[in-house]
Amino acid sequence: MKIPARGFTHAGKFHADDVFATALLQILRPDIKVTRGFVVPDGFDGIVYDIGDGMFDHHREPRQTRPNGVPYAAFGLLWRVLGPGLVGERQARLIDENFIQPLDLNDNTGEQNSLCDAIGFFNPTWDSADSADDRFFEAVAVAKQILSRQIEAANAVNRADEKVRAAYAASRDGIVVLPCYLPWKNGLYKTDALFVVYPSQRGGWSAQCVTDHRTKKPKLPFPASWAGQPQDVIEARSGLAGISFCHASRFLITAADKQTAVAACRLVLKYNGNNGKP
């Protein structure tokens, strides 16, 4: 879809819906001129959203609803058309599920959402002389930064997928070793991988349990006897020198080097998560 040079949305009090919708349009066309009003001008030559009963206005009946029952608001309607071109179909769906749907739900039902509250604070107070339009575009600037980072992160995942798939192809016994820190969850979704080992951004190496896509829990967590313990305790209980940390939730460890991280995973495999050595 080609974004026109002009946009129109409603005036008055604004919400995260119309703010993020405007931010999306600005990302796609930085020179777009958006105006606000209570009635769409006759013969308006541009994109109209969140007003006017068009394809990007969610106030008309029958309202459009996602298969899971979450109704669309203007932001979601625009993203449905424009998002896949920015990040691909899968990442567009994930951003919709994890980020956009809660905003759309707030706009349609009033369900509490902290980000929507934060955007709402940009509206002038009842006794303020500030321009609502000026405040609106202040909020849009913040939303644009947030959404731009979402898009940047999604495309980074897309770029990482090939490297993650190559590492998975070379893996043994469900232990995937990455050449560097990479966003790996998308590439290993619905695979039989059990652990991912990678250079830690904090130094050393980390090993992380892969989550089961059905239960949302680690397939094979690290032993409970390691969880949240000091390094000397973990080393004594595991018999492996160099394991410096095990998260209290048992999904992550940190080790001195790759060999130790892999050895920790193999120990868990050997005893099937039964608290380290029997």
Helicity range of the residues? 40-55%
Total beta strand runs: 8
The major β-sheet equals: 5 strands, mixed
Q: What class would the helix/strand composition place it in?
A: alpha/beta
User: Shape from CA axes?
Assistant: elongated
Taken as a percent bin, the fraction of beta residues is: 5-15%
- End-to-end distance, in Å? 61 Å
Please, what is the average pLDDT?
95
Q: Strand order of the main beta sheet, please?
A: 4-5-6-8-7
| SSE order, one letter for each helix or strand | EHEEHHHHEEEHEEH
- Ranges where pLDDT stays below 50 over 5 or more residues in a row are none
Overall radius of gyration:
24 Å
How does this structure look, described?
By secondary structure, the chain is of the alpha/beta class. Helices cover 41% and strands 12% of the residues. α1 (16-28) crosses α5. The longest helix has 38 residues, at 132-169.
SSE inventory with pairings:
Elements: E1 6-10, H1 16-28, E2 33-37, E3 47-48, H2 74-87, H3 89-109, H4 114-120, H5 132-169, E4 175-177, E5 195-199, E6 205-209, H6 231-238, E7 243-246, E8 252-255, H7 258-271
Parallel strand pairs: 1-2, 1-3, 4-5
Antiparallel strand pairs: 5-6, 6-8, 7-8
Helix pairs in contact: 1-2, 1-5, 2-3
Protein name: MYG1 family protein
Family: Belongs to the MYG1 family.
Pfam family, one: MYG1_exonuc
Distinctive features:
278 residues, MYG1 family protein, three-stranded parallel beta sheet, 12% strand, five-stranded mixed beta sheet, MYG1_exonuclease, alpha/beta
